[in-house]
Each structure stands twice: as structure tokens, then as C-alpha cells.
Write a structure and sequence with these properties.
By secondary structure, the chain is of the alpha/beta class. Helix content is 37%, strand content 9%. The chain has a three-stranded parallel beta sheet with strand order 1-2-3, with helices on one face. β2 (54-56), α3 (64-74) and β3 (79-81) form a beta-alpha-beta unit. α1 packs parallel to α2 (33-44) and α2 (33-44) runs parallel beside α3 (64-74).
Length: 98
């Protein structure tokens, strides 16, 4: 399991290399708001912008504010899933965590 430091390291890797990643899962870890902010920052700087399709982050101890930061960073770029069950096909990203 990874926490905030591991999430920050993964975010850095997404920015520096990982050019062909379609789906990215960091679900069921110990990542809190600080780690989520690091990942959101990477998305805001263009990580996965060309190839990213799905981002799974459910099962982490995020506050509502942390979820909002991630959702805003992903909106229009990559489909984020912050809850369970996983979304069914045909739903828009903004409907996924309802």
C-alpha cells in the first residue's frame, strides 16, 4: 500500500514519462488529501492528457475536499472514479460518484 509520499512519486512519474498509459489505478491505498493534491497537480500539468481514459482512486481516505480537487483536475481530461461500485458503461464522468 502506498500513502501520500508514494502518490507524489507516482504523480512525478506520470509527468516525466508514462506517455501511453490508458488506465491508471491507485485505488485501495492509504492516500489522503496531500497525495490526491499531488496527483491532481500532475493532471493539471498535462499528465495522461493524451492517452488517459480511466483513473481509479476509490478506497482511499479522502475528505470531500480531496475528492473535489481530484474531480476538478480530471474533468474533461480523464474519467475519474472515486467511489464504489465501479461505474457502469454509458454514464458520464460527472455521474460516476453518485
Amino acid at each position: 500500500m502506498i500513502g501520500d509520499k508514494g502518490a507524489a512519486a507516482m504523480a512525478g512519474a506520470l509527468l516525466s514519462g508514462c506517455k501511453e498509459v490508458g488506465g491508471f489505478g491507485m485505488h485501495d491505498n492509504l492516500i489522503g488529501d496531500a497525495g490526491a493534491a499531488a496527483v491532481a497537480d500532475a493532471f493539471n500539468k498535462g499528465a495522461l492528457a493524451q492517452t488517459g481514459e480511466f483513473f481509479y482512486f476509490q478506497g482511499n481516505p479522502l475528505s470531500d475536499e480531496g475528492k473535489l480537487v481530484l474531480a476538478k483536475a480530471c474533468k474533461g481530461k480523464i474519467r475519474v472514479h472515486l467511489g464504489w461500485p465501479r461505474p457502469l458503461g454509458g454514464l458520464e464522468p460527472e455521474d460516476w460518484d453518485r
